[in-house]
Amino acid sequence: MHLLHIKGFKQEQTAEVLQQNLPITKRESEVLFWVSYGKTSWEISQILAMSPRTVNKHLEQIYRKLGVDNRTSAAAISIRLLEATH
Q: Which Gene3D superfamilies does this one have (predicted)?
């Protein structure tokens, strides 16, 4: 887990931006945030202390709620939104 933390990084604030602007839950916003940084499901599971299967279940819900078919499309929405707010 030591390689996955970025000093001075405000994950909560940024994931909160996603939650406030998209129809997703807090946990889904955290997963989507890390997807937008190119993390794999396994890496996200280590960062957020959940199983990779749980990450994938959150992704399924994110895809449904955002009307997309894959993580690349979900990440594109997230990145556009994050860039617009910074």
A: Winged helix-like DNA-binding domain superfamily/Winged helix DNA-binding domain (1.10.10.10)
Contacts of 28 (CB under 8 A, 6+ apart): 19, 58, 61, 62, 65
Q: What is the pLDDT of residues 11-55, one digit of tens each?
A: 656 899 999 999 999 999 999 999 999 999 999 999 999 999 999
